[in-house]
Amino acid sequence: MKLLVLLALVGLASAAVYQHSLTKITSKRSKMIKAGTWPAYLKYKEFLRLAKTKTANFQSVGQKVNDYEDLEYVGNITIGTPAQTFLVILDTGSANLWVPDTTCGAGGGGSDCPDYCSDETFCEFLCDQSCCSSKKSLPAAPKANACSTKHKFDSSKSSTYQKDGTSWNIQYGTGSASGFQGLDTIAFGDAGTTQLTVPKTTFGQATSIASFFAQDPIDGILGLAFTSLAVNNVVPPLINAINQNLLDKPLFTVYLQEKGAVDNVPGGVYTYGAVDTQNCGAVIAYQKLSSATYYQFKMDAIGVGSYSSSTGWDVISDTGTSFIGGPQDVTDALAKAVGATYDDNYGTYFADCKSSFTGVTVTIGGKVYTISSKQVLVDAGNGQCEFAFFPFDFGGYGPAWILGDPFIRQYCQVYNIGEKSIGFAPANGA
Ligand SMILES: *[C@@H]1O[C@H](CO)[C@@H](O)[C@H](O)[C@H]1NC(C)=O
Questions:
Q1: What mean pLDDT comes out for the span 64-76?
Q2: Mean pLDDT within 377-402
Q3: Alpha carbon distance 228, 95 (integer Å)
Q4: What pLDDT, on the 0 to 100 scale, is given for residue 137?
Q5: Closest residue by CA, ligand 1 atom 4
Q6: Does the active-site annotation cover 318?
Q7: Pocket around ligand 1: residues whose beta carbon is below 6 Å from it?
Q8: Any catalytic annotation for residue 332?
Q9: Which among 192, 256, 259, 309 is most buried, taking Cβ atoms within 10 Å?
Q10: Which helix (DSSP H) or strand (DSSP E) does residue 136 occupy?
Q11: Contact by Cβ (8 Å): 360, 302
Q12: Pocket test for ligand 1, best of 2, 190, 193, 270 (most atoms within 8 A of CB)
């Protein structure tokens, strides 16, 4: 992974602009759809959702209701001195950093091997292998826990570590992560490269992580949204970097590449401190954020073919969501306009991969942005494609739409934290 200072870009030896290369992986969701296990998993999640709605504390502000099962772009960060490396999702749809602590799983308990793990088809995708029934019959199977395959942070080995100790808990769709907070130096990128290094950053040290993380390649999550979205109001690493004047400009650019269902290939670049002029064309326009929590703003209209709706909604730009989510009456109509049909079992729209349409148009601030058909027709195996939209209901408040990776691959996103705005620029090669 390369991380370099763009000296040429800003022409200063002291330039504070950093590039962070990402790796594209195949999402767990995509693997499960191809393996046919997705419908059963969805049913299980629905069961959990209904069970949870009965308890009062289900909706917590700023927390994802999904499980990162569709995560596709990952990158390394380091924590501490000397550096300890962690693979994380760089997520503009959340605002906390957490990684497993060296004590992760130690307090274990049976909760690390939930009921669904006894189903082998689930187990393969969602649980630590030692949970799976075929292995259960083995004598002295090691105690299962999702932390076992992860890199863990050891504060005793870091000379810059400071104690905090405040506890935290983040709920996801089928489980949670929790632990305590600490302070240390966080650096974006790989050790030994030119990193954006942010001293005295508060982060979460997880002592327990939900078992669905076991089969994810990531160790943790690095949220890039605003402090107001963060659990415990912890200042997120990039906001901390800006507060410490470590960047040329208080903004970053995200460039994601379309790579199909492939694992472990270079997949994009985050540029901290500048608009990325290497991978992106000129910025078409900036739109003021309607809420600086998520990167939330107004979308005027969306359409494809002969269909268009100009109801107007609040939307968020979210690198951690691989599709585009919106109100079901609209996603149904968009799907109908391209000949896609909703499959209840899979909870997704399927389309003929050969469908031809000129693209989905999204209108923001009076400007029309076109997402090409190749970005929204995603191979699902057996000659079928998914139409990359999903019905989404935040529950009466918050954003009505999530603009995920298909939009971001088509248009680089300039997340302008200082100006509380977001800019869109054509992505090279999209
Ligand atoms: C992350 O770091 C590990 C360990 O240094 C390395 O093996 C891996 O290739 C890196 N991954 C990415 C996505 O750069």
A1: 81
A2: 86
A3: 8
A4: 44
A5: 85
A6: yes
A7: 1, 23, 74-76, 85, 87, 190
A8: no
A9: 256
A10: helix 133-136
A11: yes
A12: 190
CB atoms within 10 A of CB 60: 11
Q: Which atom of ligand 1 is nearest to the CA of 23?
A: 13
Ligand 1 centroid–CA 51 distance in Å is 38
Does 2.40.70.10 match the CATH number of domain 18-110+145-243? yes
Between 266 and 251, name the one with better pLDDT. 251
The active-site residue, picked from 101, 184, 248, 318, is: 318
pLDDT tens, residue by residue, 118-140: 777 667 777 767 677 654 444 33
Indicate which residue's Cα is closest to atom 2 of ligand 1.
Answer: 76
> What residue owns the CA closest to ligand 1's atom 14?
1
Do 256 and 404 touch, CB atoms closer than 8 A? no
Predicted pLDDT at 64:
63
The whole-angstrom separation of Cα 255 and Cα 283 is 13
Task: Give the integer Cα–Cα distance in Å for 290 and 209.
Answer: 33
pLDDT level of residue 53 (50, 70, 90 thresholds): low
Topology agreement, domain 18-110+145-243 and domain 278-426: yes
pTM of the model: 0.89
CATH class label, 278-426:
mainly beta
Lowest mean pLDDT among 42-51, 77-86, 277-286: 42-51
Domain residue limits, the chain:
18-110+145-243, 278-426
Cβ burial, residue 295 (10 Å; 0-12/13-18/19+): buried
Strands 421-426 vs 285-288: parallel, antiparallel or unpaired: antiparallel
Amino acid, res. 30: S
